[in-house]
Structures are given as structure tokens and as C-alpha cells.
Amino acid sequence: GENVEQHPSTLSVQEGDSAVIKCTYSDSASNYFPWYKQELGKRPQLIIDIRSNVGEKKDQRIAVTLNKTAKHFSLHITETQPEDSAVYFCAASRDNDMRFGAGTRLTVKP
Amino acid sequence: DGGITQSPKYLFRKEGQNVTLSCEQNLNHDAMYWYRQDPGQGLRLIYYSQIVNDFQKGDIAEGYSVSREKKESFPLTVTSAQKNPTAFYLCASSMLGGMNTEAFFGQGTRLTVV
After folding, report:
1. Which of A80, A106, B50, B101 has its CA 20 to 30 A from that of A36?
2. Chain A residue with minimal CA distance to B110?
3. Cβ of B100 and A46 within 8 Å?
4. A22: pLDDT confidence band, cut at 50, 70 and 90?
5. Are A1 and B90 in contact (CB < 8 Å)?
6. In this predicted structure, what is the pLDDT of residue B100?
7. What is the pLDDT, as a whole number, of residue B39?
8. Residue in B31, B39, B88 with CA at minimum distance from that of residue A93
9. Cβ contact B4:B107 at 8 Å
10. How crowded is residue B28: how many other Cβ atoms within 10 Å of its Cβ?
11. A53: distance to nearest CA of chain B, Å?
12. Which of residues 44-103 of A touch B (CB under 8 A)?
């Protein structure tokens, strides 16, 4: 089955700085790559996703890039704010078989 | 709230007992999932189902069983064969189609086995 690796496991940045989280996947047939944010005590919620026919997608301060050849994708958060502090999960999906990375705990220091 | 409901939120069971976690959705989604969340290990797939009366094992299916008798419901049974059942369990659902789509999560059930 698909194997998704996510780095780093923890990330601490100063407010206003950028944060980058990277993921790799093993199944070249995976074609959907969502990113979820999970705040403490809450359910994961989708923040951005990208499909295999697209190389980059941006939504305000959040962007995701996909390199299909290298089988890796990344989440970029610019101008970080304290409310961005949470655990972020990447995932790779093929035919609705969705596997997640281990998560990155992002802390934004004011 | 979100259209997918897990119950109960907290569950306590004695070791050796089977326990069933409920997951119901009113989003008309075909696909449903069960994940287990442990600290530092992310979300690990237990089972998923794309259609009624059919389901597939994920990475950690041993000690768990599921059923999908109705499109809206995907209950998970944690059996006595599961060696370390204490964890946070998340159910999710998504649409099917030519391309994968967003998965919506329930609020989770925290199971503690004593």
C-alpha cells in the first residue's frame, strides 16, 4: 500500500516567518494530495488540496507544490500567525484509498 | 455540524471486551473510512469502504472489524484481539468519482481500555 512520510515532525517559527512542510509518497498511481489542519481537541479539516494534473496551487497565505517525478509535495505557509499553530497532516490518495503522514506540529511564536 | 457524527465521544471498556464505535453521515457520501490516531503516529488507516457491503483493509486492520450495511453507517468493532486498543478513533467520509475528493471527519471517539 501507499506509504507517506512527512517532515519535520515539529516546526517552530516566529510570527510573520514562512513555514514549509514536506511529504513524500511511494505509490506513483496516487493522484490526490490533501493537507489537513488539526487544532487541539478538534477534528482534522482540509486546508488545501492538489491533484496530480496540477503542479502548484495557492490560496491566500497557503500554497502547495507537487513534483510527480520525485513523488513529493510540500505545504508552504507565508506570513505565519499564532492561529496557524496546529498539527498539519499531508495525505496521498488513490481510488479513495487515503493514507496520511505522521503529522507536523507547527508552533508560531508571537 | 459537518454531517458526520461519531458516538460516543468518550468510551471506557474493560480489557477483553469487544466494543463498537458508531459513525453516521448524512452527506450522501459513498466512501467511508476509519483511522486510528496515536501521538506522533499520525492517522493510520484501519478500514475503508467505497460501497455498501464492501470494505477493504487498511494498514492496521488486525483486531478490528467493520460492516457497511447502509450507505450512511460504518460502525467499527474493536475486538479483544486488538492488543493495544486505547487510542483516538476518527471516522471520515468522502464522495466517489473520477477524481478523489475531500474527506470530512467526525469529531472522534476516545477509547480507553482499562
Report:
1. B50
2. A41
3. no
4. very high
5. no
6. 63
7. 81
8. B31
9. no
10. 10
11. 11
12. 44-46, 49, 51, 89, 91, 93-103
Interface membership of B56 toward A (CB under 8 Å): yes
Cα gap A23→A8, rounded to integer Å: 9
Q: How confident is the model at residue B2 (pLDDT cuts 50, 70, 90)?
A: low
Closest partner CB to B105 (pick from A6, A32, A44): A44
Q: What per-residue confidence (pLDDT) applies to A62?
A: 98
What is the reported pLDDT for A2? 85
- Which residue on chain B is closest to A53 by alpha carbon? B99
Q: Which amino acid is at A71?
A: K
For residues B89 and B108, the answer to whether their CB atoms sit within 8 Å is yes
Mean pLDDT across the stretch B78-87?
92
Q: Which of A31, A44, A45 is opposite residue B100, by nearest beta carbon? A: A31
CB of B27 within 8 Å of a chain A CB? The answer is no
Burial class of residue B65 (count of CB atoms within 10 Å of its CB; 0-12, 13-18, 19+): middle
In sequence order, the β-bridge partners of residue A20 are: A76
Q: Is some CB atom of chain A closer than 8 A to the CB atom of B46?
A: no
- What local confidence, expressed as pLDDT, does residue A34 receive? 95
Mean pLDDT to the nearest integer, B75-81:
94
How far, in Å, CA of A3 to CA of A14, rounded? 31
* Distance separating alpha carbons of residues B44 and B40, to the nearest angstrom: 11
pLDDT of the residue at B96? 78
Chain B contacts of A90, Cβ < 8 Å?
none
